[in-house]
């Protein structure tokens, strides 16, 4: 067998292992985002789905692709370990950055304002907002949304306005 074929088989084997691990991590990240931070209907309201899918696809593809390019049977165990560690650090850092961006834009408050519901993301709230809030709203929830109302409607015409 040619050296090139041996090298690509070796690299493909490592890349396949890497993609399996990446898919497992991506699945756990998706569960975190879709079940805890953006449950329905907030995920549809805030449009996080397409952005998060792009983030996961880039993360799942880039790590294994780099592994495919860098893995070689000619490298020592130390060199392979170093290469895979650097790829893992880059991939993990990208995933953490993406998750942080998604986390800071998560829905934090569902407010009923006279005749409509408004979703307020965590990034829209400032420290001054928490100082003025009642005690039960002084901290954001890790998962879930605070439900508040600006005031109760005076009558049914305010609750169900005619447009």
Number of strands: 3
Task: Report the order of strands and helices.
Answer: HHHHEEHEH
Number of helical runs?
A: 6
**What's the overall average pLDDT, rounded?**
85
Shape: elongated
Which band does the percent of strand residues land in?
Answer: 5-15%
Structural class: mainly alpha
> What assembly state would you assign to the polypeptide chains in this entry?
single chain
The amount of helix comes to 55-70%
Structural description of this entry:
The protein starts with a helix and ends with a helix. The model has no long low-confidence stretch (mean pLDDT 85). A 3-stranded mixed sheet has the order 2-1-3. Strand 1 (107-113) and strand 2 form a beta hairpin. It has helices at 3-37, 42-46, 48-70, 77-104, 127-132, 156-159, and strands at 107-113, 116-121, 146-149. The protein is elongated, with a radius of gyration of 23 Å. It folds into 2 domains: 3-104, no CATH class; 107-159, no CATH class. It has 163 residues and is mainly alpha-helical. The longest helix has 35 residues, at 3-37. The chain contains 6 helices and 3 strands; from the N terminus they run H-H-H-H-E-E-H-E-H.
């Amino acid at each position: 067998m040619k050296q090139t074929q041996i090298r690509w088989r070796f690299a493909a084997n490592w890349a396949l292992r890497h993609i399996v691990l990446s898919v497992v991590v991506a699945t756990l990240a998706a569960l975190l985002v879709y079940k805890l931070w953006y449950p329905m209907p907030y995920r549809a309201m805030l449009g996080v789905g397409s952005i998060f899918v792009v983030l996961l696809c880039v993360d799942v593809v880039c790590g294994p692709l780099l592994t495919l390019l860098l893995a070689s049977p000619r490298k020592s165990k130390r060199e392979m370990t170093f290469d895979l560690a650097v790829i893992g650090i880059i991939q993990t850092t990208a995933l953490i950055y993406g998750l942080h961006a998604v986390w800071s834009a998560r829905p934090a408050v569902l407010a009923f304002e006279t005749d409509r519901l408004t979703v307020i993301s965590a990034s829209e709230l400032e420290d001054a907002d928490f100082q003025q809030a009642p005690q039960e709203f002084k901290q954001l929830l890790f998962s879930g949304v605070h439900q508040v109302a600006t005031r109760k409607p005076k009558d049914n015409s305010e609750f169900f306005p005619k447009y």
